[in-house]
Amino acid sequence: MFYRVILLCNFVIENNYNAIFFFVEVSVSYFIDVCLFYIIFLLKINQIMLKTPFY
Known about the structure:
Elements: H1 2-15, H2 19-50
């Protein structure tokens, strides 16, 4: 997740974009990471609770 923030920082500094664009991009990246982590977490919990193989 952090490498995306660093790349966005360099992109914003080089292209002089405003802070709103930067904030939206970081928020979207963070939101996607949280969603992926949450989905994987739920799948792992289901695997542990049901003792079923993880496909």
